[in-house]
Batch of 2 targets.
Target 1
Amino acid sequence: MINIVGRPTSAARAVARRVVYASIALAVLTQGAAAKSPEIMPVSQIRPGQTGYGLTVFYGYQVERFKVKVIDILYNFLPKQDLILMRIAHPRLVKAKVVGGMSGSPIFIDGKLVGALAYGWRFSAEPIAGITPIANMLDVLKRPLRKPGAIAAERWRRQQSSRALALLRADSKRRRDGWWRAALPFRGRQPHPSQDLIPATLPLSVAGFAPQALGELRQLFGPLGFEPVQGGGAGGALNAPRHFEPGGAIGIQMVRGDVSMSGTGTVTWVRDNQVLGFGHSAFNAGQIELPVVTSRINHTLASLGRSFKLSTPGEIIGALVQDRQAAIHADTSRRSPMIPMVLTLKSKRFNRTYRTQIARHELLTGSLTSVVVTSALSEAFADVDRATFSMNTAISLRGLAPIRVSEQHFSARGIRQAPAFVSRGLRALQAALGNPYRELQVDRIDIGIDVNYGEEVVLVEKVVASRQLVRPGEQVMLTVHYRSYGGSPFTQRYPLTIPESLADAVLRVHVGGGSSTTPIQAPPTDLKQYLRHIQTHFPGRSLVISLQKPAKSILYDGAVLDDLPDSVIDTLNRGSGTQIKKIFMTVDQHVHATQRVISGAAELRLHVKRKDS
């Protein structure tokens, strides 16, 4: 008998010891069972007609079972990878079929892990899914991780640098359109909407974004297999678990804060800190570092096109480290830092501030920043009206002076999408991330946009010279004809001295606003010059007079080579893929400050005599 009052007897102490030892042993056994990976069933043991079950979350955090039955195996469906066809069954799947967000749901036969639900048909009338074998997914764990500085290929850096600088030089909106789209590779060719077996769509849960931004997000992430859907996220999921479990939801978070963006799938396999999921790639990007979160499933929505899960991301508890054909690989012992961004919008009667965190990645940061800005403007300044706006961008770089760009622009149809096309600050961010010299750490992004619906732009209509025939060193007077909306036309005269070096030539004189004119700059040779290059621009409240002379150029191997000697052109022209292209090269520029933003441009030609004529 145990004496419960007073000092315990020796017998009571012995019983207590046995209870404690049993509890410890049970805890150890339970912990060992939880940590032990499930037994694997290889494809060679799978036969048509076998039955089993899968795990996924249809609502909240509760992992549920659904039934599966093997139909057949598609051998070598992908390079070195088979695919198991299965029929799936659950009351929620009768109408929903294969659900976007189920990617990664672990599949078991006889208690052994077979693989992950990963593929389906759009518009399918049957709940048929393709299963990625677990052996292919486990192979992803064997891939060694490179050092962070070696993640980006040097060739890609050179291409991005050249592309970014070219965009900074672009003078027309048409050439700038779509610059912000991510350079991540597609998973492959665009599938037939109903006939092709494709990766199960990954719902891209977006919260705090204006509805108009969904179109841009579809252009940006649709080819990668993400389907943007409006869900929760800005406030974060309540009581989100702090660990991953097979069948539970896993999200890749790209934007966090007042607005949120997270792609959601399912966990397949967990051992210690290592997590596998999806059963297919997210971006097809190889080694990559992005935050991963647990997610709450708000609802599983059945749709005739493609059913999907609505979700809300929880806390960041790890980092995505591999994004491969057969699976994503996350590590909960790692963290992928995000970049704080503060966006301030204001006008005479309105002020709003957005505080967000953007995923830090060379291929995504610039595009995500642009989408966040245009979405905020769509909500704050939806007015389809003539407006000018000033935009100040500050990009803080670790160990270097910040990049600062101050610009002024005009839009005749509102500004809600204008920055995506004209902002030099946003393009400077992309250019800095893709620089060819070394990896830069962006610590913070601050963007301020001041909108003025009362200020009118001044339009350049034409330019007239006091004479067409001039000599080197002479001065000619240019008369620029302006017009403002609702105002009377007016003119302004500007003196122009012809440089001595431009004798015996036909000059093109280009007159335009500073925001649409590119400064003359020599190609950068080091990082310091490169960063100075991407920050150099003319103010929008200025008129720039550019002198341009004819120059022979060729289009060779996708690049324009300017002002080459005839001997070089003749040599290169013998090769294939070379096109002669006559262009004008800017040789001199004169900047005149103005009170209002200048829009439009005009041109004329001057004939310069030889010095001795």
Note: The radius of gyration is 31 Å.
Target 2
Amino acid sequence: MLVMAAIAVVDISAQHEVRITTKDGTTEIPLDEISSISVCEELWSEWAPIYGHETGTYYMSLYTTLEFPETVFYREHRLDETKAQFMFKFTLIGAKEDLIVDYNKETHQCQVGIHDFIDHRDYGPVFVSDFPHNPFDLNGDGQRETYEDYPCTFDPETGTFTLNLVYFVSTGLGSSANGTFGYGEETAVLDGFKKYDYSFSMVFDGKYTKQGENKEYAVFKIVKGADITKYLFRVVEYGSDLDATIAGMADGTINSAELTESTVLHYPIEKSGKYVALAITYDAKGNVHSEYSTNFELYLTDENPWVSLGYAEYTDDIILPLYGNSPMTYYVEVLENKDMPGLFRMVDPYGPEQPLYPYASSYKEGSYIEIDATDPEGVWIEGWQSTGLDIQNNGLMSITSMAWYQANAEGATKEDVAAAGFCGVYADGVITFPTDGILVGIGSKVYYATRNGAFKLDMTNMIESLPVESTAAKAPVMRFEGGRKLSIGNNAKRVLRTVEVKKSKSIPAGIKSTEGFDPTIIEE
């Protein structure tokens, strides 16, 4: 018989008589049938640093993007040897409560209950918890999120916490509104453990023609971390079933290149078009560590349909206003597809020759924004397209149009989004988008852009070369204001009028990409 009991107050210096009876109090259980009795002052041991792991780094990416060192404490349950707790002292960011993580030493599973995290200037208390503890139906399916689908874990070999968390406000907990600031995965790493490098990068770097062969190759620069033992690589046509391809690469039913070192890889391409490069990385135990994808486009010799029209006036109502600045007009080069009139590209609109470039932490040259104006009344930006721009080391910014975002979701057609007023218009040589008609993706968050309704690409008076006064030397004085970050949540229909926000289906869940998002729409 296993009997466990906790007595709130006991004088451990005195003698006590112990009797155990049944619930109705009629039958007494003999003490000789009890193997042991433990008496402790508290159910939990005292909080104490972990020798050799007294500190760690917490990587916050949901409420804000920040990494910071923290003091870490640990304690164990005195009656249940499987239970322990870690405590992160969130003093550096002014949190109201320390973050306590419940830990099961046998399963390595964690839980994070509801914590009063910080006060927001407009919404009052902001809370954080793991997915199962949060009060909202995040998937909108009426089902409570589970640890099976959204695990929280601690790896005792690497000292790494992987936590699926939600930052939210709730009127039931004293906030002035209901909604989420962000939800997804955050990590923390304790010091004193071996540092593993599972980083991986594959960058499309143009094409290569091998002399003596009538064949062209896509060129990729691939850099892997030291602890990736191997990786599989394959290119597929854009629009292929990426889930099925990844599964086939992993089980060997689909051929792929197997590599063990960083390299410059030449991959044969037989026809012009859009493609997706896929990679699967493996750890030292031979297990899949991560999956990656990147989109690229390659045209064989003399097959490039893109023709330069010259330089058009472009009014940026995307990046500058995102940081609290006014829209700005300058010149960008515009290409048109000769096989599809009305399909345009703005070339490097935020690149080295443009006004915002001095504010870039990094920039990926050769970036373009493609605008489909083949239907003048149904103009949109299809898919997530990289601007090439990273400001303040928050990650590359990608954009899409609200029209495409809605039409790509379940239950919406292009006719639906056009009728809802999400599409842009192409008239008299000028392309415009409506207020909130463009979205900006940074990391796992998505923000409304074109808040002023001022986006304009004016191709009525094209010029042949870039004017000197519009180069980066004439960069604006730019401010960086912290905007409000509140998920649309239950107000989606009101903000988006007739079409609900749905999660993007462009990149399968689990595949890392700067061009595919599983986003939380943020109102800046």
Note: The helical segments are 242-251, 319-322, 402-407, 414-419, 492-496.
